[in-house]
Specification:
8 helices, alpha/beta, 5 strands, 193 residues, five-stranded mixed sheet
Amino acid sequence: MLSNSSVFDAVRRGYNELKLASNDDILDYFANVNPDAMSGHISNIKGIVFEQEVVNALNSQGMDAMLFEATNHPVSDIALMSDGDIAADMQLKATDSVSYINETLATNPDIPIIVTSEAANSLDSAMVIDSGIDNAVLNDAVSEALSGEMANHVGESVASDVASEGLAELVADVALPISPIGIIGALFGFPFL
């Protein structure tokens, strides 16, 4: 569920100067931002909200996913954990730009990417996973929250059935494939070999 508080939490996570700010302070801060610069802020915050939503969905589905402390972590955005160790890295992209996803795949072909539905629907790659979250809905939610408008969709899920029920399975199939050695390990209780 995406709420205004999710957006404010993302701002606090991504902007050091607003780490301890109240919701009203955050609204005041963005009210004073040049309108031309606002689209960059919305894009940045949308990406952070997307990371939070995906990690929450994965964790609620029984996967141990974690955000990196820095919002600009190099190469990957989240980690899938197993017994306290990183089992796999994932990239997340909240965009409808197919060329941006293709550039990312070319740069890091071995790291799976969880993307918003618009991008996923336009790509055919085993390394691209549909989050079930619409980029347009994320963009609108962030824009409305930062402008102080009450979002029409607050209280409604921004995720489709993919994210709400099967995202962890899709991620596991791509990021944590089981090899023959992994099957033997699984029989003896060793995860993600």
